[in-house]
Automatic annotation (TrEMBL):
Family matches, as InterPro entries: Aldolase/citrate-lyase_domain, HpcH-HpaI_aldolase, Pyrv/PenolPyrv_kinase-like_dom, Pyrv_kinase-like_dom_sf
Protein known as: 2-dehydro-3-deoxyglucarate aldolase
Taxonomic classification: Bacteria, Pseudomonadati, Pseudomonadota, Alphaproteobacteria, Rhodobacterales
GO molecular function, one term: metal ion binding
Domain HpcH/HpaI aldolase/citrate lyase: 18-242
SUPFAM superfamilies assigned to the protein according to its UniProt record, in alphabetical order: Phosphoenolpyruvate/pyruvate domain (SSF51621)
Reactions accelerated catalytically: D-glyceraldehyde + pyruvate = 2-dehydro-3-deoxy-L-galactonate
Keywords: Lyase, Metal-binding
Keyword Aminoacyl-tRNA synthetase (UniProt): no
Amino acid sequence: MQERANSVKQGLAEGRLQLGLWCSLGSALATEVMAGSNCDWLLIDGEHSPNDLLSIMAQLQAVGGHPVEACVRLPEENATLIKQFMDAGARSLMIPNVRNAEQAKRIVAAARYAPEGFRGFSVGHRANQFGRIKEYHQNAHLNQMLILQIECEEGVRNASEIAAVDGVDVLFVGPGDLSTNMGAMHNAGADHVQQAIASVLEAAKTAGKAAGILAPLQADAERYIANGFTYVAVGADLGLVARGSDALIAHFKKD
């Protein structure tokens, strides 16, 4: 038995746009519905959603039959969580609020087996089909994808050094946290925030890495894609349900 190739990692390496959707509802059924949308990747959120290891593993199982790469956002940089979620089958991980290259190096090391890193070794787990993928441990890094979020001014200043770390695949801008941390809450369109976002994009491109961003507004997503972002989340289950239900009821209560 062989591990399925990470099509998103391959697509980004070839410079192809990879479109994603955010899964925040903590529901395996809702995530399965999203997986059928023909998106390239889903982000199962473990930071700002009511999720834990078991609920996220259930969502990984729910989307396993779809040709979509499931990515998981951890609540923080934490080597133990990286080990546990990777063993549970999350090979594409997003880590929030990465501020410098040293932190990026720790994250890469936590995701890799010795001698390149210090990920704990287990003979059989969900990631290697319970011991059925015989070459898993030697080749695990080939299909792993690490997406590091840039969400503060320190991260922006150090974006070039973070992107240069071997094993980092994507620099991902979190516009909400970044704008808040730059004194422009709810205003990611502010000039100084947009300049910071552009500088992260340039840092990623210079290092030969992909740049990503969350852009649930269509006009924003189209602009970021035109500028060169290739790992782009264009919507979220929570927002689609909330805005869709709001619009539907508003239509019938328009009088």
